[in-house]
Amino acid sequence: MAEFGLTYAEFDVLAALFRAGPPHRLKPSELSRALFLTTGGISNVLQRLSAAGHIERVENPGDGRSRWVQLTPDGRQLAETTVHAAGRVHARVMAGVPENAIRQAADALREINALVGRAPLP
Prior knowledge:
mainly alpha, Arc Repressor Mutant, subunit A, globular
């Protein structure tokens, strides 16, 4: 992501907004939960992306207490470019790994995720 002038956290936010589909927007709390970032951490990332012109905060007509985080046209283009670049890198890295090993790892991660999702918080 350094090639694109992004930190991993910034890429993660752009990718999450891009994957959300048109109009490419989510609430900050949704981004924080999805990306496992604290509210302070997500706030810092959003400030940097906003200053760079990649995202904007827009009114939420359904709830005056909150705002949406939305990709700008420039941010959408950058997100699309970086998501595809990351996909190509992942494909190259995983090219030598047998498909059954990938499936087993994915199944194990799904099981761990399900168990962690049900675990009570301390």
